[in-house]
Design a protein that fits this description.
Oligomer: single chain
Structural class: alpha/beta
Radius of gyration: 24 Å
Number of strands: 18
Mean pLDDT: 94
Largest sheet: 7 strands, mixed
Helix content: 10-25%
CATH architecture of one domain: Beta Barrel
Low-confidence stretches: none
Shape: elongated
Length: 323
């Protein structure tokens, strides 16, 4: 019909190229289905960071360059197919790795007290903003006697391949010192609430003059200087690669992932993020890429996890090359 109209009107006969709609694993691209999710309150709206909409991707922290590169990589397909969302995340990581400033944040804090560090002393330690971009320079982070580290970075009875902090073990604090765990404090329920450690003043900057090595480097924040923040951890919106793969009598919403959002309200970030504004993007060292959410307010920053550091697509490519 399109061709017929052009011929009858005697106007320029443009070339028509048919191509298939883009489908991504673990989500839906149909506007009808996306509208259903929004209207039923299954997501917070069209700009929910789990939605594959431009507004949702923007709020999640996706950069325009990453999306454009993804489109260049997949090209135009004339047959219906589903693209692994891991490829989109791979393109995202490639861009954010080059452009995102590194900062330190602790999502599930565990207090550390360095017993032999002077009580009122505060040091400014130099940290690299982005090792991929020398022009990004450095920043100063405060270091004090009381710190927060991740709960997952300590184990009272470490397993064989656990190299992080444990009783009697020495580890490196990023940009700071070697510390050794000496004592554990627990609450009435037996939960660990505090660690007492010692530090080696000669290891300032992260290296030992005597050449001894440690097997792990931990990120941290200074407890008196850290900013309290809310962090929202997003995962796939659906549990199945194809959300339409359902049992008889059920629709695609039956495959919604109940754990697609985890909200952490007692997180701490370094003070350099005090003036961060949407849509500023950062790499929280060892944790992933995060951006500032519009729900942030003065003194109450909110960060969305854009993507983790783990790159499954790179592993897929590597295994395919090996075969």
């Amino acid at each position: 019909m399109y061709d017929w109209f052009l011929e009858q009107l005697g106007i320029f006969h443009s070339q028509q190229i048919e191509f298939a709609r883009l489908n991504l694993s673990y989500t839906v691209m149909s506007k009808r289905k996306l509208q259903q999710l929004a209207q039923k309150g299954l997501v917070s709206g069209w700009d929910d960071p789990r939605m594959p909409t431009i507004s949702g991707l923007r709020r999640r922290g996706y950069s325009p360059a990453a999306i454009r590169n993804f489109c260049r990589v997949i090209g135009i397909n004339k047959f219906n197919s589903t693209i692994d969302i891991a490829l989109l995340e791979h393109c995202l990581r490639e861009d954010l790795n080059k452009t995102s400033a590194r900062v330190m944040a602790v999502l599930k804090p565990l207090k550390v007290i360095i017993d032999n560090y002077p009580e009122n002393k505060v040091e400014e330690l130099k940290a690299i903003n982005n090792p991929e971009d020398p022009a990004a320079g450095t920043r100063n982070v405060p270091f004090s006697r009381e710190l927060y580290i991740e709960q997952d970075d300590f184990m009272e009875e470490p397993s064989k391949k656990f190299y992080r902090l444990a009783p009697g073990r020495e580890v490196r604090l990023r940009y700071a010192y070697f510390i050794t765990c000496k004592d554990i404090v627990k609450d009435a329920n037996g939960q660990i609430i505090e660690l007492h450690c010692t530090y080696d003043p000669a290891t300032r900057g992260g290296d030992a003059p005597d050449g001894r090595k440690v097997k792990s480097t931990l990120h941290w924040v200074s407890a008196p200087h850290a900013l309290k923040a809310e962090v929202r951890l997003y995962d796939h919106l659906f549990t199945k690669q194809n959300p339409d793969d359902t049992e008889e009598g059920k629709d695609f919403t039956s495959n919604l992932n109940p754990n697609s959002l985890e909200v952490l309200t007692d997180c701490f970030v370094e003070p350099s993020l005090k003036d961060a504004k949407p849509p500023n993007r950062f790499q929280f060292e060892r944790l992933g890429y995060f951006c500032v959410d519009p729900d942030s307010s003065p003194g109450k920053p909110v960060f969305n996890r854009t993507v983790t550091l783990k790159d499954t697509w790179a592993k897929i490519q590597k295994s395919q090359k090996g075969k």
